[in-house]
Specification:
Strand 4 and strand 5 form a beta hairpin. The strands form two sheets. Strands 1, 2, 3, 6, 7 and 8 form a six-stranded mixed sheet that branches. A two-stranded antiparallel sheet has the order 4-5. By secondary structure, the protein is an alpha+beta fold. It has one domain: STM4215-like (2-Layer Sandwich). The protein has three helices and eight strands.
Length: 134
């Protein structure tokens, strides 16, 4: 298991969402709508039936537009939807093995819906928690 390989595979999966700019590392600057795949918030080591199965929790922050943009809330909700062309959950569910890098990946939650200050600009966004077993 290589953390950067898993992170890159998750970013590749998110790139299937049309129009979403995906950053597999935390950028100095970005253009919304953006998905920023962060470092794992936890790594659990385990061995099952003689083989290694490690559980990683990746944060994915979605930032859609300036908070003053009237349509920002509707755009953010499309990424949070359980399914559909712009759904983060649906993108991960479409290839839960992340191109063969993982045994399974799944979106656990979307939380922290609100305003995020990035470089002095207020953006509407939320944080997804993605669990990957590799």
């Amino acid at each position: 298991m290589n953390l950067s390989t898993v992170r890159a595979a998750l970013a590749t999966r998110l790139e299937t969402i049309a129009g979403l700019r995906v950053y597999e590392t935390i950028p100095d600057q970005f253009s919304p709508p953006a998905a920023i795949v962060g470092m794992p918030t936890s790594v659990k080591y385990d061995f099952v039936f003689g083989g290694a199965v490690h559980t990683l929790s990746y944060p994915v922050r979605i930032l859609v537009a300036k908070a003053t943009d009237r349509s920002a809330q509707e755009r953010l909700e499309q990424y949070i939807d359980a399914d559909g062309a712009t759904s983060v959950n649906a993108a991960v569910e479409a290839d839960p093995q992340l191109g063969g890098v993982a045994q399974v990946a799944r979106v656990l939650s979307a939380q922290g819906l609100g305003v995020y200050d990035m470089g002095g600009v207020a953006y509407l966004g939320c944080d997804f928690s993605v669990e990957v077993q590799a």
